[in-house]
UniProtKB/TrEMBL annotation:
Entry's family note: Belongs to the low molecular weight phosphotyrosine protein phosphatase family.
Keywords: Hydrolase, Protein phosphatase
Classification via Pfam families: LMWPc
InterPro entries per record: LMW_PTPase, Ptyr_pPase, Ptyr_pPase_sf, Tyr_phospatase_low_mol_wt
Gene source species: Veillonella criceti
Name recorded for this polypeptide: protein-tyrosine-phosphatase
Record PANTHER family: LOW MOLECULAR WEIGHT PHOSPHOTYROSINE PROTEIN PHOSPHATASE (PTHR11717:SF7), LOW MOLECULAR WEIGHT PROTEIN TYROSINE PHOSPHATASE (PTHR11717)
Enzyme class: hydrolase
UniProt superkingdom: Bacteria
Gene Ontology molecular function: protein tyrosine phosphatase activity
Active site: C14 (nucleophile), R20, D129 (proton donor)
Amino acid sequence: MTASKRPIHIQFVCHGNICRSTMAEFVFKDLVNKAQLNKNFIIDSTATSREEIGNDTHPGTKTKLRALNIPFTPRKARQITKDDYNSADYIIIMDENNRRNLERLLGPDTDHKIHKMLSFIGEIRDVKDPWYTGNFDETYDDIAPSCKALLKHLILKYSL
């Protein structure tokens, strides 16, 4: 647990909440589970748009996770809210459009919670979007090392 005795809330965000943010959510949950740190985290994902509200994870994301034996559960895409912003410790975005849309939806990031996914591996580019590329392998190759680096960062920061 953190010093405050409450779990660290990590929220992954992408445009529709069916491809990238869900992949990151389940990859990160798997890493946390393997590290036996589940009690230290709340992990979820949301969208900046309303386009996919209610839809489950994209079949391409499920196929990639299945191939890697990364567990996932049925879910429904949902749009981020101000309550999500307030409860999250880290909001991990996939691209700069997500940042602009979050600011439009929620106002400025005055609490400095928003971080770009690839920043945890020292990159400034966007996570490749399989909605447009159809390549879920490339997306995973962006997300997996970033999730590992994020977990390492949090373990050090919170002495987990």
